[in-house]
Structures are given as C-alpha cells and as structure tokens.
Amino acid sequence: MSLSSSDRARSVLFNTCVRRTEPGPSSLTRVSLLVRCSSDRARSVLFSVLPILSWLPSYPVREFLFSDVVSGLSTGVVQLPQGLAYALLAAVPPVFGLYSSFYPVLLYTFFGTSRHVSMGTFAVISLMTGGVVVREAPDSMFYIQTVNGTNMSVVLDEVARDARRVQVAMVFTTLTGAIQIVLGLLRFGFVAIYLSEPLVRGFTTAAAVHVVISQLKYLLGVKTRRYSGLLSVIYSLQAVFSRITETNVPTLLLGLSCCVFLYVIKDLNERFKKRLPIPIPGEIIVVIVSTGVSYGMALSNDYHVDVVGEIPTGLLAPALPDFSLTPNLITDAFAVAIVGYSMGISLAKIFALKHKYSVDGNQELLAHGLCNFISSFFHTFVVTCSMSRSMVQESTGGKTQIAGLLASLVVLLVVVAIGFVFESLPQTALAAIIMVNLLGMFKQFRDIPHLWRTSKIELLEKSNKTTKTVTKRDGKAATT
Prior knowledge:
It is built from 22 helices and six strands. By secondary structure, it is mostly helical. The longest helix has 30 residues, at about 325-355. It is a multi-pass membrane protein.
C-alpha cells in the first residue's frame, strides 16, 4: 500500500528526530580515543621524535663509515676555531664557544633529519645573542673603585661581568629553545616559507656588516666598549677611529697576516675543490701557528697582545638559568628562534634536494629547540646550522649524521684534554677567522642589480633589511 505525500513527510521527520536523539560518544570517550596509545602509535611517535632510530639500525658500515669519519674529522677541525671565534660575537669567554660546539652537535645526531648540515655556532645568531647579552650586562654595571694608597681608580671587574653575561646567554638560549620546541609541537615548521630569499639574504648581509665592524677593535688591538641598540654601528666606528692612534702594531700585523693567509687558502679551496680530497683546513692552521708564535714570542707579556686567556679543562657541571631575566629577553628570543630555524631549514632543504632525500620541517624545528634548550643548562649560547661547516661536511663526503657526531667528539677531546694549549691564542687571529668567513655574505651585494631588473619590491625588501640593526633596545626595533 503506497503512502500519501503527507505520510511520507511525517515518516521522514520522525526518523530524523529519532536519529538526533540517539546518544553519540561522550566527550570523555572522544578524548580517550584521541590520547589512546597503542604500541604502533607509540612506536610511530618515538621514531618521529628520534629519527636516528629509523636509519641507524640499517646503517651501511662498509659503504658510509669511512666517508663519515673523514667528513667528521674535517668538520671538527673547522668547528674548533669557529667556536672560539664566535664566542667573541656572543660576548662570552671563548671556552663557552667550545661548549656550544659540542652539546648541540651531539644532540642533533639524535633529533635531526638532515644528513649534511653542521649544527653549532653561527656568526649571525652569535651576534644577535651578543647584542642581547651586552644590553643586559653592559660594562658600566661592573666598574669598581680601588684604592691604592692615596690614589683612587676605577677598574672593570671582568670576572663578574663575564659571569653575568654567561648567565644572560644561558637563559636566553633556554627561552629560544623553548619557543622552538613549542612551535615544533604546534606544527609551525611552515613559517620558513614566508621568509623570502631576498629578505633572508638582506638580513644576513646586514648582519655581516655589523659583525665585521664589531671585530675591528680586536684586529687593531684597541680597547673600546661594545655598543648595542640605536646607531650601534656608528658608535662602534666612532669609538674605534677615535683611538686609532692607540693601535697595537704587533696585533695588527698578526691579524692582517691571518686575514691574507685565510683568504688565499679559501681561494685555493674554491679553485681546486675538484682536485683536493678535502679542503685545506686554513682556520686550524691559523689557530695552531698563531698560538705557537704568541707563546714562543711572549706576545701577551712583552707586546700586550690580547689572548684568549684561561681555558678550564673539562666540562662544567649543569646549572639552572636565572629565569628572573625572562621578561627582558622573551621578545628577542622569539626573533632569534625564527631566524635560527629559517637558516637551518634553508640549508637542510638545499642538501636534501641535491642528494635526493627529504627533511621534516616540523622535526627540524623541534630538533633546533631541543638542541638549544637542553644544551643551555650546560652553559651554551644559541646555535643553528652553519653554511661554511655544512659545505665542508658535505664536500668531504659526509653521508649521515654520524659525521656530525664525530665532529663533536673532536671538540670534546680539546675541551677535556688539550684546551689549555690554546690559552695563548691571540684574539686578533679569531677576529681574522670571523671576518674572512663572512666574505661570502658580502658577495650578496651582487643581488642588487639583478633585483633592480626583476623586482623593485624585492629589492626594497632587501635594502630595508640591510638598513636594520640586529639588536633591539627598550623593546623597539632600532635602525641605522
């Protein structure tokens, strides 16, 4: 018997009401389903957080081990002088650059997904960290009055200043790592795609200018304070040139000799990179030779050449950062977290594309955060991937993260056994290493004619970033 149209309508309405009144899963049930942890899911999460578990069991020892050993030793030899040098940019004693070249590199072996990037100290990030450190612990806070008979003088308490700056760097690194971890857990690894190439290249070029100017006082051997904030470049140049007559000639000659030698070595490595089995380690040669010359000729005592000074043997015990500084550092930490990750993921994607493997952007962000956060308790400053060391690791045949692990062990050997050998290392040699390593960034000025022809907007974006400082003061961006 067929139903009338009104009966069919009532039937549909009745069925709809019944379905709507049927109880669905409760909120508690839905939450339990969401957080339920099966063995497969736990395994998937573990392998996602620790990528080393997915590739280490199937590591082809015969095919990869020799290449990784050669690459790791070569990278470690480069990492050692760069760690000492970039500590100057971070405004902490050089030995803390060695700590920052060991712990994060070791951790990245377990958490990173790129096989070729070299984690550790990097000039731009070190400079940004140093700007914050100097702002929070300026020299003016540590002048003390001393009385010698009837004479009273004011001297700088460098021990107290350095201890405070290390504390600032530690908490700053902790905050930066925590921000990167949170962003990684929230799957914010895509943020790097919103930073265009002209913007990043303009930013790094501007940072290179700041770095070079900050190293002039070490190259000349003059004593000036370190500036941060508004017009810091102008003030730094003014301070250096106002004391140009106080230039320490032995310091200048040694620094220029190191610069010329490093430039020649880098040019030879570039010209004959297809013929050389490994790049000539110019930086470690400079460190060894300049240390020997400084010690043999007593440059520190007889000619007043500034040297690295005491390098404690062994690793320091972990310590808690001073979190009372957090309100002053949080905005700077967020900026450094984004910039550091952007540089790292850019390098990782370049090598992944070249060698036909994939990197996980979210896991890389998490890896950067864990490297910074965990390492900060062991007296390190903020790190990211270094372009120059990554090129060394890749060009010397590195196949996996084992190369980075071996590079960290090279640094560890120096810290625990022979660190005292480098106490006579002149600071002008470290300044030469920093300045010559940044020559590649200055070549980015060649982008300007190309951008002028192709896109005026991207040229303006690059030039705007080049006119900005990499430090802040009073919470407002400063421009020069």
